[in-house]
Amino acid sequence: xxxxxxxxxxxxxxxxxxxxxxxxxxxxxxxxxxxxxxxxxxxxxxxxxxxxxxxxxxxxxxxxxxxxxxxxxxxxxxxxxxxxxxxxxxxxxxxxxxxxxxxxxxxxxxxxxxxxxxxxxxxxxxxxxxxxxxxxxxxxxxxxxxxxxxxxxxxxxxxxxxxxxxxxxxxxxxxxxxxxxxxxxxxxxxxxxxxxxxxxxxxxxxxxxxxxxxxxxxxxxxxxxxxxxxxxxxxxxxxxxxxxxxxxxxxxxxxxxxxxxxxxxxxxxxxxxxxxxxxxxxxxxxxxxxxxxxxxxxxxxxxxxxxxxxxxxxxxxxxxxxxxxxxxxxxxxxxxxxxxxxxxxxxxxxxxxxxxxxxxxxxxxxxxxxxxxxxxxxxxxxxxxxxxxxxxxxxxxxxxxxxxxxxxxxxxxxxxxxxxxxxxxxxxxxxxxxxxxxxxxxxxxxxxxxxxxxxxxxxxxxxxxxxxxxxxxxxxxxxxxxxxxxxxxxxxxxxxxxxxxxxxxxxxxxxxxxxxxxxxxxxxxxxxxxxxxxxxxxxxx
Length: 541
Hints:
It is a single chain. The chain is α/β, with parallel strands linked by helices. About 40% of the residues lie in helices and about 20% in strands. The protein folds into three domains: about 1-100 and about 240-305, 3-Layer(aba) Sandwich (D-Maltodextrin-Binding Protein, domain 2); about 105-230, 3-Layer(aba) Sandwich (D-Maltodextrin-Binding Protein, domain 2), CATH 3.40.190; about 335-535, Rossmann fold, CATH 3.40.50.410. This is von Willebrand factor type A domain-containing protein.
């Protein structure tokens, strides 16, 4: 039986499994051998996603070294949650937690002392204030699309910023940008940014705060660094790393039987001490022998695992909501991945239609709101332009440029002003194909390396509806195939509004260009779909 486990818990599993095998482990009378391999959760997630033909934001393709195990013990149920929400055929069994590591706010002790630790109980509002208005705090985070502790911290900070009423959106954006300024692709790289000298200048220039697991902090401090890290246990606690024991779908029945036996071993009392030696707590949040608790660490600590009902397959999942996770990661990607983008908005007559599920706001109004919120997330590093399209918009064209692609740093006001002034054209049709070709040529002409060059088109049309004829779908496909340049890719993202969108022809077009089609069957959900679409852009060109 092959077990893939997160690196920090793998030694404890291997020790317990060896004792079980040496004692004559059997499954229905058959001897069992257990092979435990350390695999980063993101690498196994990439394998699972690839097998099911889906993509997780920020995860990318499998690295070629990870393989599909019989049992997977990632560091967090959020991996299972993200995969099950993306891939309908992925339904692992068991999924119960076998360990826990609370997610804490890690600070060098001198920095923590400056804000009142350990005497003062630090609140989320204290931290938010430091992140959004202070200048002495240098925050960091491990890329949350690829790291469960980073994701947990991001979710917690975002939720707290969301409680600030009218200032919620600006606070959330400020937090994301502050964290992004110090993000690291790997946990080891982030930890290396903490101060390595007691010199005040070194402390001031180094990383001063980051969401990490308690295990990260204990392991870091065990190396006796010049400046230890303080672990701040804020309330409400972020979602803990909960180490679910997931038996993968399709596992051989005999191996699945063996997996049941190993699970019993890993939930026995003795296993708590094996976990303690690896700086981990038991699943109930208490610790065993050998655990070196950080100063002020409560026991128990962290969030318990929340188990789904039996009718959902009996698989345990973390307390995070999959919709919230997906939206948070989409927003993070939109904020942190600078791009060169042309937004193309449908102003045909049907965009004036009302949407009952959104208080009878028009489709045009909802589209404007989604685009405006998106623009608010984009940093000054972005370059954005704005077109509208319908039919006969002047000069024999079905499209019109309102703002050329330019840095958001100088064009934000113009973009906001033009967005707010857009109105549907009464009786206007949908010159979709001519507009796609013109937009593609425009973005390709000004293509820039080091950015995601893309077109984001928002339309409620059922397809091309051009009274003057224009290019056909077959003609458009031929043109796109002839002008596309693999060395200068331009992604076309089409967001369709309503349940009449005919996505078949649109899928054929984006298959040529790259990108994808996203349909908001309920136009009131366009904001969520917009963020999801932006987050699916490739990370590199």
